[in-house]
Amino acid sequence: MSPSHSLVADCPCGSGEPLAVCCQPLHRGARAASTAEELMRSRYAAFALGEVGYLTRTWHPRTRPVPLDLDATQDWQGLSVLDVAAGGADDETGEVAFEACYERAGVPGVLAERSRFERRRGQWVYVDRV
Predict the structure, then answer these.
(1) Where is the YchJ-like middle NTF2-like domain (predicted)?
(2) Separation in Å, CA 127 to CA 28, 32, 64
(3) Nearest residue to 39 (alpha-carbon basis) of 130, 117, 122
(4) How confident is the prediction along the chain (130 residues), in pLDDT tens digits per residue?
(5) Can you say how many angstroms the Cα of residue 128 is from the centroid of all Cα atoms in its chain?
(6) Residue 114 · residue 95 · CB < 8 Å
(7) Other CB atoms closer than 10 Å to residue 35's CB: what's the count?
(8) Which pTM was predicted?
(9) Surface-to-core class of residue 70, CB atoms within 10 Å of its CB (0-12 exposed, 13-18 middle, 19+ buried)
(10) Which of 49, 51, 97, 104 has its CA 20 to 30 A from that of 73?
(11) Are 45 and 19 within 8 A, CB to CB?
(12) Residue ranges per structural domain of the chain
């Protein structure tokens, strides 16, 4: 973890909670995401923090790239959740639409996606984009 993301820093997912009580317990395996949105937010934070192991564990094996390489030049700047369809604690599937702002080599960009999630062995996993 970089010095700019200390345990008291706000979580990159945009919840306003400290990283140590928000996404970090998910990244460390202390608990699992209870909703598709929580998983999506924790995966965004994992991208921002370089948590490749967590991204691998939470990506459906059918669609996961091998190897999973992150772009070290991409600096994630913020996340906005636009829509959530299903994906609740009692659902088996869900979708989350979001926009994630980033900067690469000084050039700003936005990743806009509607992601599909499903439960696999009782745990939420990212499947693909719609």
Answers:
(1) 35-128
(2) 21, 16, 8
(3) 117
(4) 444 444 568 999 999 999 999 999 999 999 999 999 999 999 999 999 999 999 999 999 999 999 999 999 999 999 999 999 999 999 999 999 999 999 999 999 999 999 999 999 999 999 999 9
(5) 13
(6) yes
(7) 19
(8) 0.92
(9) middle
(10) 97
(11) yes
(12) 3-129
The CATH class given to the 3-129 domain equals alpha beta
Strand order in the sheet with 93-104: 74-86, 93-104, 107-120, 123-129
* DSSP symbols for the chain: --GGG-TTSBPTTSSSSBGGGTTHHHHTTSS--SSHHHHHHHHHHHHHHT-HHHHHHTB-TTT--SS----TTEEEEEEEEEEEEE--TT-SEEEEEEEEEEEETTEEEEEEEEEEEEEETTEEEEEEE-
97 is written with which tokens?
């639409």
